[in-house]
Specification:
By secondary structure, the protein is an alpha/beta fold. The chain has one domain: Rossmann fold, CATH 3.40.50.1470. The chain is built from six helices and seven strands. A seven-stranded mixed sheet has the order 2-3-4-1-5-7-6, with helices on both faces.
Length: 202
């Protein structure tokens, strides 16, 4: 049944959300598509692109539903391409992590993230990998919903770009080497630290 790895980046459709913390999952997928010279098409309530990396198939998907309905699209893509749940990787923001940190997990609950909650409810399981991108600014956030939908604060823009690049490399590491090597390296990476182990060559 496994026809490749499905990488889903979460976000909200619409240009007004493009530079918001909540759309960092989309940013990672866009960078992957550019790197792999993959082209988007509209299907399964998502923008979907296919690419190969070292003879391994990657299916990239950006749900075009609202964030809290992401599961509808993810389920459709899984079924259409015949991808096993164990080969699903979801990339999303995380307000519980400091800005710039990456956390990869093999499974787990939604952690308050509406996109993950929707996916878990739609596929009936939390047994899929997720990559969380830290967006907490280091000071109290008065209105979380407003913060994640506003443009990324200017002082965090360079760090956000670095984190997106690291997350892109992390996805390629998962595909080429497996989940554990990616977890062992990227979960320990300091904020803004550049890659020094050859992963930049992936």
């Amino acid at each position: 049944m496994n026809s490749g790895t499905l990488v889903v980046g979460l976000g909200n459709p619409g240009s007004q959300y493009r530079e918001s913390p909540h759309n960092l999952g989309f940013e990672v997928l866009d960078r992957l598509a550019t790197r792999l010279q993959a082209h988007w098409k509209n299907e399964c309530l998502a923008f979907v692109a296919r690419a190969e990396q070292d003879a391994k198939l990657l299916i990239l998907a950006k749900p075009l539903t609202w964030m809290n309905l992401s599961g509808r699209s993810v389920k459709l893509v899984l079924e259409y391409y015949g991808v096993a749940l164990a080969q699903l990787v979801v990339v999303c923001d995380d307000l519980a992590l400091p800005f710039g940190r990456i956390r990869i997990r093999a499974h787990g609950g939604p952690g308050g993230h509406n996109g993950l909650k929707s996916i878990i409810e739609s596929v009936g399981s939390d047994q899929f990998a997720r990559m969380r991108l830290g967006i907490h600014p280091g000071e109290p956030v008065a209105d979380a919903a407003e913060y994640v939908l506003q443009p990324i604060p200017e002082q965090f823009a360079p760090l956000a770009s670095t984190m997106v690049e690291q997350a892109t490399l992390a996805v390629l590491t998962i595909v080429q080497q497996g989940l554990m090597p990616a977890m062992n390296y990227f979960n320990r990476l300091s904020i803004g630290e550049t890659n020094r182990t050859g992963l930049e060559e992936l």
